[in-house]
């Protein structure tokens, strides 16, 4: 036996398609039963799925444990930046709530925005912030939280607001040259970032216009007829009584956005917002001990909680309202406003993110086994064999990215693995590499937020306080973009062929001279 054969025997063999499908079917069944039948969290289902796939790799495929463990650790390492950002955002939210930063953004937002234009404004605001910062996570963790509060005041359902926040956040995430995914996708496909962005304009531009129209149409359903002025004013006044509302409270989010937009790394930029929030909290009279407690355990509203406790004791409630300068409002309006603020503001802190961090680690462990032991590769190889047309290439990458997001639970793996596997196929078709990079981002980046156990889906759900399955129908950009990309490809629109000098040639069919 040659040294090469000895190496292969030591590492283990690649799984067959049947073996891969069995492993994935078992995992899918465990996850589905956990969520639908047993109505429990998906964490342990992912751990068991990882253990089963590791057992198959060890005892059937003959992979040594060291190789499997390396795959798990490599996968977790790839997601550690996301984990650190997640924990920092938890601290950021707690700090900003204690210092009144979030309340300030909500207060001014309620004064400016109206229900009929709220969804359009939300989409555009989040798009601008994410384009400037290159971060969907940073957008959701800053202006996204404030917009959720404004939505509650305007009577816009949480899932609807979250869906448009995520649509805007991921528009910038995939189009901004500052975004890590916008740089990763062309690197995997073999093109440069500017060719990549130009290619995405063909598919993302029309999709964004469609989502704008949807936002306008849906927004009409929340017109002035259902606008409760007293409710909005009561929410504003409650926040104003408990916090110092002034433009100074806008400094921390402006600082974070400015640093990120200037090209500074995400983690230091976000932590600068933590430091600015800490200074504001101390200047407003909070003790350092209180600040540390909120940074770890989260913020709990004071006045709204007292009002809720006295909801059934009208004399005591009336007395409290008079003491705090709220006598001009009806007791029902104040109780309603207090209920909204209790639900909205009782969040944040390092520990609030532990559930999500645990979910991410469990998912990455499972994904690491599947990646290192060749299960994902065996699926993609089968898909590649059936690709014969340009439309088939795009559909195959679409399916591969969605499947990888669901199975490996990380958007970076959903860009890297299909990018590696389909690069030669696109080249054999004579397509410019930007076609592959465009498709990776049209699907791999944005569908990650639609999978509850994916790092992105878990983050958005935890940060915005809305379960993934609830906001999914309203995250229009995230699932319409892949559909638009496929339809446009079959229509022959925006197809880029590789020219003689490597430049893209836009044509419906491959030019005869190429």
In brief, what are we looking at here?
By secondary structure, the chain is mainly α.
Q: How does this structure look, described?
A:
The protein is mainly alpha-helical. The protein has helices spanning 3-11, 17-37, 43-59, 65-99, 101-112, 115-133, 136-154, 158-175, 180-189, 193-219, 229-242, 251-261, 266-283, 288-297, 303-309, 314-323, 331-345, 354-372, 375-385, 390-407, 411-428, 433-445, 455-464, 468-471, 476-490; strands spanning 496-498, 504-506. β1 (496-498) and β2 form a beta hairpin. α9 runs parallel beside α21, α19 (375-385) runs antiparallel to α20 and α19 (375-385) runs parallel beside α21. The chain is globular and about 80 Å long. The two termini are 46 Å apart. Mean pLDDT is 85; it is low at 1-9.
SSE order and pairing:
Layout: H1 3-11, H2 17-37, H3 43-59, H4 65-99, H5 101-112, H6 115-133, H7 136-154, H8 158-175, H9 180-189, H10 193-219, H11 229-242, H12 251-261, H13 266-283, H14 288-297, H15 303-309, H16 314-323, H17 331-345, H18 354-372, H19 375-385, H20 390-407, H21 411-428, H22 433-445, H23 455-464, H24 468-471, H25 476-490, E1 496-498, E2 504-506
Antiparallel strand pairs: 1-2
